[in-house]
């Protein structure tokens, strides 16, 4: 028999509405589980998953907590605290900060090059980056003596409204003016491009290369020897001629007496509106090198040049991994002598660490993620059990690297399987994604062959991010059919499933009104997530006893609300209806309890 942890990525619970895809979809199998089996809810946001209070959950944080068997403090919180003090070293608030970037930059500036390029997702979403980190980096580099601070903006439109770039910029310059204003005459815009390109995580290397090359100066871009660059790109299955045709080279005429912040505002306004007119919203803005054109300084591009410093501002690993890897490869292959800082090591194994006697160009993470020492996967292995971790490419890192506590490590008896995601511009094109193929594999190669199965269904999150309600309905109805297939097999053979999610998303998507504007919701939500025990032998009293014993044996702190939560029977016959808010139990337990319960079934 197999015990299955089924993670419905981006599947939160809220009452029915015109934006709630779950309530608009035919989901008889999910409703059947709510009627037949004991179910509860879990908290998946803020301090319940080790983040700052008020921040919505995300896939990285969610999987790390589920797989961590306890609350896992997140690195993003340390970065935020440190950034508010221009990244001064303070081990009490940021124990995993490795060095003060101001001192690093001061040493580099002694060599004469005082240009710093800031690259990252520019968003209020706080999923991959944080505007406070941008402001802190500008302040730190400015205080260190930078003469030029070049912003390379990756626009969001996925964890934020799809046309939010300008509003985000206005918020940024107003909210953090105290940090920005002293250095505003040094701030320039070097490039702009949507996250679809630079932040790909599905090995679409042509997209990543498009994002990287748009950040390069025209001289550097042209200096990359064609005969050397072409075979380099071929290693990534990229054709150089096709790649060159994708990058836009855009000139913006500015007034000589306009201040730099105003110039950036005007440039962002011009290029975003131009992209919107071609139905290329924030996520899909084609990466472009930007050129300033003034009476005295015609056609000036502030892209990356040899010996410059680059600071990668995203703190989350999965969508900066390919970018940082390729940038480091280009730097090494063509002897660019770049000094690259990062908020994280991004799991690429290219990092160097500061040595007072040997500070060579290379990649230096400012912070270092500390791996979880005793993740769920290790615990299962130590019991002599086997386990399968399976997902499609979009969420493969989440059931492997993140689920295993920030480690690319398999324990004895552990197997990883990835199903290739569809190569599409938007998952609304094929909203079924790979749910069928994943279920096929589990049915044919997983059940009865592994003691434990960890599976992620990406549909709710990835299709939710498109903001397309019709695609969402198709996606959820497909997912429900796959849950039905698993349910039938489980009931026939006596397997057990815990069904949960890592955060909310699909329960509110699409068009809505706010402050007189029509917006499109594509981002995560702070709603609680389901916690369903699909098991014919499940008894709340028995799981309570096992949980208490486990917590005592492993010296975990006592979990409040355990008895209160498991004493309630929330089973309900919804018929043709969806849940109301009154029917959704209050979430009083943190997300990591899902992993804890799996090993105590």
What would your notes on this structure say?
With 601 residues, the chain is of the alpha/beta class. The protein has two domains: 3-72 and 373-598, Alkaline Phosphatase, subunit A (3-Layer(aba) Sandwich), CATH 3.40.720.10; 104-338, BPG-independent phosphoglycerate mutase, domain B (2,3-Bisphosphoglycerate-independent phosphoglycerate mutase, substrate-binding domain, 3-Layer(aba) Sandwich). Helix content is 37%, strand content 16%. The protein has 23 helices and 18 strands. The strands form three sheets. Strands 3, 4, 5, 6, 7, 8, 9, 10 and 11 form a nine-stranded mixed sheet that branches. A seven-stranded mixed sheet has the order 2-18-15-1-14-12-13, with helices on both faces. It has a two-stranded antiparallel sheet with strand order 16-17. α14 (260-277) links the parallel β6 and β7. The longest helix is centred in the C-terminal third of the chain and has 25 residues, at 469-493. The chain is globular and about 75 Å long. The mean pLDDT is 93.
Most strands sheet: 9 strands, mixed
Q: Which geometry do the CA atoms define?
A: globular
Oligomer state of the chains in this structure: single chain
Q: How many individual β-strands?
A: 18
Number of separate helices: 23
CATH topology of the largest domain, by name, is Alkaline Phosphatase, subunit A
Which structural class fits the helix and strand makeup?
alpha/beta
Distance between the termini: 12 Å
Write down the domain tally: 2
Low-confidence stretches: none
CATH domain class name of the largest domain: Alpha Beta
Question: For this structure, what is the CATH homologous superfamily of the largest domain?
Answer: Alkaline Phosphatase, subunit A
> In what range is the share of β-strand residues?
15-25%
Mean model confidence by pLDDT: 93
Q: In which range does the helix fraction lie?
A: 25-40%
Q: Per CATH, which architecture of the largest domain? A: 3-Layer(aba) Sandwich
Rg, alpha carbons = 25 Å
């Amino acid at each position: 028999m197999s015990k299955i942890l089924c993670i419905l990525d981006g599947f939160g619970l809220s009452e029915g509405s015109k934006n709630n895809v779950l309530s608009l979809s035919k989901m008889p199998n999910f409703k059947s589980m709510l009627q037949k089996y004991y179910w509860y809810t879990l908290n998946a946001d803020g301090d319940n998953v080790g983040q700052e209070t008020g921040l919505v959950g995300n896939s990285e944080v969610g999987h790390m907590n589920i797989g961590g068997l306890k609350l896992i403090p997140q690195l993003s919180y340390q970065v935020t605290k440190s950034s508010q003090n221009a990244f001064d070293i303070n081990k009490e608030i940021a124990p995993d900060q490795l060095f003060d970037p101001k001192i690093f930059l001061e040493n580099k500036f002694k060599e004469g090059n005082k240009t710093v390029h800031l690259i990252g997702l520019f968003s209020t979403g706080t999923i991959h980056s944080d505007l406070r980190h941008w402001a802190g980096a500008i302040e730190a580099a400015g205080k260190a003596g930078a003469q030029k601070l070049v912003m390379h903006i990756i626009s969001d439109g996925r964890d934020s409204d799809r046309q939010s770039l300008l509003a985000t910029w206005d918020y940024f310059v107003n909210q953090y003016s105290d940090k920005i204003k002293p250095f505003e005459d040094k701030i320039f815009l070097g490039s702009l491009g949507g996250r679809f390109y630079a932040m790909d995580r599905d090995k679409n290397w042509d997209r990543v290369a498009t994002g990287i090359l748009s950040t390069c100066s025209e001289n550097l871009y042209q200096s990359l020897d064609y005969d050397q660059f072409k075979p380099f790109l071929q290693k990534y299955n990229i054709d150089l001629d096709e790649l060159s045709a994708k990058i836009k080279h855009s000139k913006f005429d500015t007034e000589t007496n306009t201040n730099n912040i105003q110039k950036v505002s005007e440039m962002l306004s011009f290029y975003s509106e131009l992209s919107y007119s071609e139905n290329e919203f924030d996520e899909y803005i084609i990466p472009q090198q930007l050129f300033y054109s003034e009476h005295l300084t015609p056609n000036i591009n502030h892209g990356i040049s040899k010996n410059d410093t680059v600071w990668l501002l995203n703190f989350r690993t999965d969508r900066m991994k390919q970018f940082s890897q390729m940038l480091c490869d280009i730097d090494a292959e063509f002897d660019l002598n770049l000094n690259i800082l990062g908020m994280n090591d991004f799991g690429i194994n290219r990092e160097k660490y500061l040595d007072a006697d040997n500070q060579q160009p290379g990649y230096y993470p400012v912070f270092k993620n500390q791996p979880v020492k005793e993740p769920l996967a290790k615990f299962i292995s130590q019991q002599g059990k086997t386990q399968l971790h399976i997902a499609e490419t979009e969420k493969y890192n989440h059931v492997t690297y993140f689920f295993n506590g920030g480690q690319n490590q398999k324990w004895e008896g552990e197997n990883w399987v990835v199903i290739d995601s569809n190569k599409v511009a938007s998952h609304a094109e094929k909203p079924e994604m790979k749910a069928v193929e994943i279920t096929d594999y589990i049915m044919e190669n997983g059940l009865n062959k592994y003691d434990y199965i960890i599976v992620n269904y990406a549909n709710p999150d990835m299709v939710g991010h498109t903001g397309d309600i019709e695609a969402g309905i198709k996606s959820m109805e497909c997912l429900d059919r796959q849950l039905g297939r698993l349910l039938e097999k489980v009931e026939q053979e006596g397997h057990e499933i815990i069904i949960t999610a890592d955060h909310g998303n699909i329960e509110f998507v699409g068009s809505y009104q706010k402050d007189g504007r029509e917006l499109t919701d594509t981002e995560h939500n702070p709603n609680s997530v389901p916690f369903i025990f699909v098991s014919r032998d499940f008894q709340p009293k028995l799981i309570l006893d096992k949980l208490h014993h486990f917590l005592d044996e492993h010296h975990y702190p006592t979990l409040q609300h355990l008895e209160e939560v498991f004493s309630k029977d929330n089973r309900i016959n919804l018929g043709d209806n969806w849940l109301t808010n009154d029917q959704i139990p209050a979430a009083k337990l943190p997300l990591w309890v899902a992993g804890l319960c799996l090993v105590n079934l």
